[in-house]
Design goal:
28% of the residues lie in helices and 28% in strands. The chain is of the alpha/beta class. The strands form four sheets. Strands 3, 5, 6, 9, 10, 17 and 18 form a seven-stranded mixed beta sheet that branches. A six-stranded parallel beta sheet has the order 13-12-11-14-15-16, sandwiched between helices. Strand 15 (235-243), helix 8 and strand 16 (264-267) form a beta-alpha-beta unit.
Length: 323
């Protein structure tokens, strides 16, 4: 099969690779759409030692099952594979499974390819005729859905003024998830003027370059020192910071202020299987808006897409590749 292979920092090549091989409990999925994630970009830049070259990246996928009893069923893919039997899995916190794996990270190749093999339990069926371009957004939006759920739980029913840092798919997904979970006062921060204008015009978001005031809930969808510093400064006393982004691992948090003002910090990773299903259902039922904020390109042009994202010239929060 053909695949877009990461071969080293800022290098991607279309190659013929061995066909994906499904195991006994797996399905083979023909990929229809697959998104470029921030973690793919980190790998592309050589900043993620968990994703060594050569490797097929990509984990935000939707497509059609090929072969077997469910041949022809169209699905969106939960790329997080967990054991199902450990204490975390049994407690419904399967995203914390100690043996978790995700496609696009060894030993599992990713979905920037014509086909990928996934456990059947990781697949959510699409309604008849549902667009793959929207279904592929279930994975990035589920990250925001999970973060919002945890943040609102920590606030325990208090009125919420929310701030989201970052206008990529993770940040926008968090803003849409806040709205779907009954929060109305939402501000999104996006420093890139091109994307900021897109989010205002196309996505009807309240977007600013720099936020001011204090917020009950701050969601950092970027995860760099500067955004953590902003979150520390703008969270209200007694408020909550939820940290999704994996931009860098150090610096930014004002731990003294967090201590003196009893600010709760929650790190979040991915989503639970139930969060993924809930997000997919919300997408299917239209609770997250039209989800038309994508830039679609052929998989063979993936290298150019990565370079354009790197250059800050892509207005859309999500680029989807079409194998």
């Amino acid at each position: 099969m053909r695949a877009l292979v990461y071969t080293g920092p800022e290098r991607l090549e279309m190659r013929e690779v061995p066909d994906a091989q499904p195991g006994a409990d797996d399905a083979l999925i023909r990929i229809e759409r697959v998104g470029i994630c921030g973690s793919d970009m980190h790998a592309y830049l050589g900043h993620d030692n968990r994703r060594p070259a050569p490797l097929i990246l990509g984990h935000e996928a939707a497509g059609t099952i090929v072969g077997g009893a469910r041949d022809g069923v169209r699905v969106t893919v939960n790329p997080l594979v967990t054991c199902g039997v450990c204490p975390a899995c049994k407690a419904g916190r399967d995203n914390l499974c100690p043996t978790r794996q995700i496609i696009s990270m060894p030993p599992r190749e990713g979905a920037f390819a014509e086909r990928v093999a996934m456990p059947l339990r990781n697949l959510v069926d699409l309604p008849e005729g549902f667009p793959a371009a929207k279904a592929a957004l279930a994975e990035p939006v589920a990250c925001g859905w999970h973060a919002v759920r945890l943040g609102l739980k920590a606030l325990d029913g208090r009125p919420v003024r929310a701030l989201v840092l970052g206008g990529g798919a993770i940040g926008l997904g968090a803003a849409l998830s806040l709205s779907a979970q009954d929060v109305s006062d939402i501000t999104l921060v996006e420093p890139n003027a091109l994307r900021r204008d897109y989010l205002i015009r196309r996505c009807a978001q309240n977007v600013v370059e720099v936020a001011d005031g204090l917020f009950d809930l701050v969601i950092d969808g970027v995860g760099y020192e500067a955004t953590r510093a902003t979150a520390s400064a703008l969270v209200r006393p007694g408020g909550v910071i939820v940290h999704i982004g994996l931009g860098s691992g150090k610096g930014g948090l004002d731990v003294r202020r967090m201590t003196l003002q009893e600010i709760t910090f929650i790190g979040t990773y991915a989503y639970t299987a139930q969060d993924f299903r809930d997000t997919a259902r919300a997408i299917f039922e239209g609770h997250l808006g039209p989800l038309d904020w994508v830039d679609e390109r052929p998989l063979a042009e993936g290298g150019r897409a990565f370079a354009d994202i790197r250059g800050g010239v892509v207005a859309a929060p999500k680029v989807l590749l079409i194998p």
